[in-house]
Amino acid sequence: MSFYSQMLPSYTVGDDAYKNVPAICEPYGTKAVVIGGKRAIEAAKDYLLAALKDSKIEIIDFIWYGGEASFENGDVLIANPKVQEADMVFAVGGGKAIDCCKYVTYVAKKPLFSFPTIAGTCAPVSSVAVIYYPTGVIRDTWQRADGMPPIHVFINTTVIAEAPEVYLWTGMADTMAKHFETTLASRGKALTHGDAFGVAMGVQCYKPLVQYGAKALEDCRNNTPSFEVEQICLCILVTTGMVSNFIDFSINSSIAHSLFYGMTVLPQIEEKHLHGEVVSYGVLVLLMYDGQMDKLEELYDFYKTVKLPTKLADIEVTYDELGPAIETTLTVRDIKNAPYEVTAEKLYQAITDLEEYNRKRG
Ligand SMILES: [Zn+2]
């Protein structure tokens, strides 16, 4: 290849962020169609209509995306006359609705703007989509051939603070992994400009969490779009999204996410625990495995404050159940991203040492 392009989204953040929609979107036309989740549309609709009241942009319809980020739902949306009539698409929701709109707007050749109503993942900012079968089973990740993320992201912290705080909690937990996994996976490797840029930015995927996370959760519980909520939203949505957009897949994750996928063979993990929650436990295992005791100490205190899991009992797993989970962990592609061979024996040891560390720290 004789060239490559790095696509990045821009964003507006604040407790009245939708006020900036006319200034950003008017150059793209006058007719917008909103596609999103039912609850997300409900949460954002009044704020959005109020912000557009005196603008040239008219929302010609609010359409439910279909409940699953699938090509099948995408094709139904692409055939919808209102979608065809629209000059631009406003994707409103959590990850799945916005991911579905990435496919819709790519095929329908419409500009895409995203409106996250929760801060759970970096989907509103990244160009990659996680696509499911209509049954809800995961199909694959899908990347637009043009590499384009949404053109602009409108992060309304009022809407996000009004959503249940569990989304912010699990979003924080998953974001934490980005720094520790990318630094481990990139260690000793020759990095491209984009890889090095992404890994360097990754530090901001954990420092603001330790600094502002507890206060942000409390404010979210009280539906208050505070400074701390804003910092955490930027961390979960923007920083993580930027890192994802910059770095190669081969350094994107390692031990923490692999352990999560391994743990999903246990029914209690599938049924009762959230992705970010289990990944955050995996981060502590990663730090123990890699001997990063100062970082472990820092995170341990933070985890206790915000009630993230620090030991097996916190995710309802017993030591005796670990066999199939560890076996599966070692088959996950991401485990190969570590700078050394991860073995079952050492993984058991890291988990045992972490249990012991918990007993000492209390
Ligand atoms: Zn994750």
Describe this protein's structure:
It catalyses: glycerol + NAD(+) = dihydroxyacetone + NADH + H(+). Pfam families: Fe-ADH (PF00465). Pathway: Polyol metabolism; glycerol fermentation; glycerone phosphate from glycerol (oxidative route): step 1/2. GO terms for molecular function: glycerol dehydrogenase (NAD+) activity. It is built from 16 helices and eight strands. The protein is of the alpha/beta class. It folds into two domains: 153 residues, Rossmann fold (3-Layer(aba) Sandwich); 197 residues, Dehydroquinate synthase-like, alpha domain (Up-down Bundle), CATH 1.20.1090. A hairpin with a 5-residue loop joins β6 and β7. The longest helix is centred in the middle third of the chain and has 22 residues.
What is the compact description of this entry?
The chain has 362 residues and is an alpha/beta fold. Helices cover 52% and strands 12% of the residues. The chain has a six-stranded parallel beta sheet with strand order 1-8-5-4-2-3.
